[in-house]
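Input (Malate dehydrogenase):
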Amino acid sequence: MICGKLWSTMQQQLRHFRVTVIGAAGGIGQPLSLLMKNNKLVTELVLHDVANVAGVAADLSHVATKVHVKSYTGASQMNDAVKCADLVIITAGVARKPGMTREQLFEVNANVVSGAIKAIAEHASYALIAIVTNPVNAIVPMAAEFLKKEDLFDPRRLFGVTTLDLVRAETFLGDFMNVDPRKVSVPVIGGHAGDTILPIISQCKPKFNDDQECREALVKRIQMGGDEVVKAKEGKGSATLSMAFASARFANALLLGLKGRKAPIECAYVYSDVTEVSYFATPLSFGPRGIEKNHGLPPLDDYEQAGLEKALKGLQQSIENGINFAQCH
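Output:
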């Protein structure tokens, strides 16, 4: 079996990729896997979960695309699932329930993700890693620490997927301005929880021209969009379909970059020196090695600058929680 750098180089030349979805039988994993099955940049789609994944793979194998589907089950088959992957998307873990804090969620999901990261370090060290599992603000720094222990951390290749915040911003602003959301562009920086989510509406295209009260209401709705879905589902789920859509959009940008084609700029939560905290979401460009350029902070007005200062405080605590977990395990 050809692995590592040689495999990655061959895949780029052949211009098709092996993508692994961890947590593929879950609420996000299933629709995400369907979307990846329909992605023309994917040649092989590998599904992994602790149970019920063989049925998902069988179902997807009937979808009329050229993508070949494989499935693996349980911890004993994790290594085979990630082996030689070009992109690993981690969705595994429990969904947030009503009244559940993100700190409580972290305690549960950190153990799930850490197992996947250790397998990737050993069997797919050149893969791009896209983490969907919440809380992203703490899980990504934790993952980086585990990779550092193996001397395999590459800041260009590890991502916290915050695309859902952009999708919500585009949708809510588009609806408010009576514009097709697909024609709305607005950077969303910071993190992926509550006040750490910073929609930079001053840079929205087309321009947002309403009053400050309306802007603040839209910012709050974007920040709390996850709670809106959890409440609407009456405790029986969280944002799964919209998260799958957002994750597939982000994955496509990464794959376009790997292929050497022009990829859309997307925001993601990554290792960063843009602010005083070591992980922060900003607009990124992608290439064959992952991040090609971090575009840094967009211009901020006074309201957004105040939001940034508030976000940094929340992010610092989450980052410390993630690092501390890795150092103790």
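The first strand starts at residue 17 and ends at 22.
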